Structure of Glycine-rich domain-containing protein:
Amino acid sequence: MHHGSAVPRRARLRRGAAALTFVALTAGTALTGAPAATAAGSAALAGTACTPTEGFSGCRLFDPKTGTQEFTVPSGVTGLDVRAWGQGGGGNSMASGGAGGFVAGTLKVTPGEALSIAVAGLNAGDALGGKGGSNFADRGGNSSAIRTSGGSALVVAGGGGGGGGDMAHGQAGAAGGESGQDASEKDRGGKGATGAKGGAGTGNGAAGADQAKGGAGGAGGVGRYGGGGGGAGYAGGGGGTGAETGSSTGNDPTTGSGGGGSSYAEPARVDDARLVVGSGNKAPEKNDPFWAPSGDPVNSGVAEGGANAPGGPGRIVLQWRGLPVDRLAQVTGTDVTTQPGTDVKPLAVLAQGKDGKPVADASVTYTIEDPDGLKPFFYLTGGPDDDQTVVATDAQGRAQSPWIGLGSRKEGSFTVRAKTLGASTAFTVRVKESPYTVSASDGDKQKAEQGQDFADALVARVVKSGKTAPAGTEVEFRVEDTAEDAPRFEGEDRVVRVKTDDSGKATAPALTAGEGTGTYTVAASVGDAMTQFAVEVVEGDGSEEPGPGDGSGSPSPSPTADPSPSAEPSPSASGTSGTTGGDGTSTTGGTSTNLDGGSLASTGAGGIGLLLAAAAGLAAVGFAAFRFAPRLKLRSRDDV
């Protein structure tokens, strides 16, 4: 697992260059303690979504990143469960680095408050560990911290000391606790920081910086073998002494390792604080579900001191109790059928509370269950593909999975389960051979106000055995919602059947929004082949312009290859209306349509002045491009 997941899981490397083009941009790793798909949420929260521990609904995990990250406390949240590790110090074959510190507790916060997050890692962190005094010596670990927007420390997890360069065995000091540990080399090793006071250096090693001066670790003494650097923290550890040129080693050791930095929790803001010290180079709280080992045998796990290796990175995790989720409604991807070897578009759920309103910032865990051995997997950004991922709900309460690939060409079915605190739902994906391929040609991802027609007709394109389907092929369009307030064709029909024209396209009658609001799925199917359209109904207060809209706020993949058979492009033409059906049940499924990819349909017959005014108003938030041209389209997997 990439990013060092807490529990080993089945993972797969990407399958060739073509697979890289299908990577979902909102994906991540999958387990408790593992980063995931997106930082979407009501306040565009920083960090990556993670599976919260029991009793929490939201979770963000922060790994090292150059510079600071800003986290905005979600609405209604007054307390954050905090877990923070500092970086372990580097070590060599003779002197191991000290472990980073660990701080946990409940941070009292105000909804909307901005917090500054700095996570320790290579060239990253709140304060920097001291440099080693030579190429043989190692640097101290950097500190991780949570601070107010004004810079006041709330939580600081110190870094461990770096190993000295001598040929004699030694151990750098681990980070605090309220005080960092001293290095093991008596009279030669740097001293650990004590509270806000930096640790003393030994010999020509530098003292660590006090809290008032930034908390950096002291540099190791310069010399032939060099002393180890002190770890950073609330205050920094001192550097060890270095051996002068010509000094002997072995039985007459002359260098020392660095001392550990101190950790801190602001008493007025952190309840039930725990400041835990590691043991030597062993990281503290390795049994915590968010601690992660290294993904390779060379590097160190989170906060581990280096044993002939760099020290392990820091990590910060924030959890909170938000509005409870009472129901996860499937909004895209219901009853999907796809061909063997063909990727499945993202699935999506809507998290709702008991009052039916959307719940933002909740962590949704998607898990694939594969009884038929089809080897499905999520395409994950930045690491191996896997069968589990975590996605946060956005401001509209939606959480969308990554694209799903298939590792075999067998027929069968698999389940994708979406789960959050308080609710779960399961999607069934069937994999079955079919001579037909159905794709959404026009009308996908539109918005309409309650009671109004959607501006553009839904148009499905049908390919049979790699060629344009014969004219007269019947296509069934079905609104996948039985509620009376859901959209209906021409205001009354849930199911309609129309026939394709000479270009293989079938055009559904006008779709009219009902009184219900939210995203609805419309399936278009021929035999065992199917695609889905996502349409959104917004409140009829005049604040939303009918027409295309993405509804999810996240970008879609931009593939360079289409996994489905395709025919040559042909001119658009209207389909021929066929029979309509009442509330019949669809007998097919197919590749689902995601909420944020695909074509942007025509904006309809609106005044150009109104169009440009809407564009100007949306430019400030980055959506102006959706309105600049009435026929703007984006390539997707359904475009052939």
User: Anything to note?
Assistant: Residues 1-43, 543-640 have pLDDT under 50 and may be disordered. The CA atoms of residues 316 and 378 lie 25 Å apart. The chain has two helices and 38 strands.
